[in-house]
Amino acid sequence: MFHIPISCLKYLCDVDVVEEETHFTSVSAHVLIGEIMVCNWDLQKIKEDINDVEKRLKNIIDVLGRIETTSTFIKFFLFF
After folding, report:
1. Handedness of CA 40, 41, 46, 48 (dihedral sign)
2. Number of neighbouring beta carbons within 10 Å of residue 45
3. What are the phi and psi torsion angles at 60 (to 5°)?
4. Cut 0.90: pTM above it
5. What are phi and psi of 11, to 5 degrees?
């Protein structure tokens, strides 16, 4: 975590960033690892959902392409 002293709020100037002392423990490491694992699971689920949507869209495009091809064939066959 960082502290940003804002001593010159009225002026356009550089702001010093001072790093706080952090107490990193094995407990906090386990918490972070757990959060990363949950995020990883969420991302995996999102990837699977995206793949499912892509498959559905490909099927829809395929069906629409067949309808277009069929209607063009029928028009050609009926009028010529």
Report:
1. positive
2. 10
3. -60, -45
4. no
5. -115, 155
Question: What DSSP element (H or E) covers 65?
Answer: helix 26-79
Name every residue whose Cβ is closer than 8 Å to that of residue 17 and which is 6 or more positions away in sequence. 2, 3, 4
Average pLDDT, the chain: 77
41: closest CA among 51, 52, 49? 49
Domain interval for residue 27: 2-79
**What's the total number of domains in the chain?**
1
Comparing CA positions, the residue from 41, 2, 49 lying closest to residue 21 is 2
pLDDT computed for residue 39 by the predictor: 94
Q: Which two tokens stand for residue 8?
A: 């010159």
Q: What are the CA-CA distances from residue 7 to residues 4, 10, 16, 55 (Å)?
A: 9, 9, 9, 56
